[in-house]
Amino acid sequence: MRIERLRLFEVSLPLVHGFQTSSHRKTGLDHILIEATDAEGLVGWGEIASPADPFYGSETTETAWTIALRHLVPAALGTEWDAPEEFEAGWRRVRGHEFAKAGFSAAGWDLHARARRVSLAQDLGGTRAEVVAGVSLGIEPTIDDLLAQVQRQCDAGYDRVKLKIAPGWDVEPVRAVRAAHPQLDLHVDANGAYPDDDDSAAVFRALDDAELTMIEQPFAPRDFVAHARLQKSIRTPICLDESVVDLGDLRTMLALDAGRILNIKVSRMGGLSVARAAHDLAADAGVPVWCGGMHEFGVGRAANVAISSLPNFTLPSDVSGSDKYFARDVVTPAISAHEGRVPVPTTPGIGFEVDLDWVLQNTTRSFDTDRSDG
Question: What region holds the Mandelate racemase/muconate lactonizing enzyme C-terminal domain (predicted)?
Fold first, then answer.
């Protein structure tokens, strides 16, 4: 297989509801879509879902655009490969920039699956016909606003809700949601906002009584020791997200017992191949995993659905329907959830068609290797 043409589109879409985390608020997204065409005319799609600002991690839309054009496009174009892992090896010497790599990885996997005439889920080794979806809710202006959002998602059929927390917005909103929904699969995500001190320990001891499924990423990404210390002191499983960028990080987590659940984000880990390898390593260690999201458009969301069909994704994943985020998505049909479950496509590749006219209408800049002016 050989990619003969690459097109990149930076696409801007508004969110139907603003989203607040411990570090920032967003009302829209700027992601980069990758269209890869091989020598036989097959087309594969990937998505670089990096945030616009360096708050979740160090990557941004701007850094991803630069790395893509300077390093990943030259590495991907014209290279002969048979398996997606061989395709990804072309940029092995590029350190970091996992979000950018993940977009190219997904395009290669989509092409590979289409060439084999199998679904992306089947190509990855998926075993499920549908995946259980959860929703992630941001910080709201008031607890009443949060309760209204939780009720809206429960009414839509979602049985798992993740709440963003931050210092000053933690114990009381969580208690209010738990009181209103005593049977809800509920967990919290701090995005590393808490310092490793006595005040934080008191917060997590209080949250330990809320019957949460997990407490996600309480401390800074590199502080495995703080996570291990906290895990020893509370019953609730700690889930790591930002801390685990590669398989070495996962081995550190396992060795220190710094977390007992893993959030696998394809974007954070640099692509589908390493995400699958992390799934396998966690499964061997008896650690359950789930797929986190970065508010992906339909292209990236479809890849998340596919990876979530693997057997050790035993917890609900952030693959809720497109309508929760966008009035109109970039794929047709839009990804939909029914009673909190998303069907896994069985048609070749990601299983959805990209609405190129809509993409072009919302493109803020583009690049085409077939144009000499870039």
Answer: 143-237
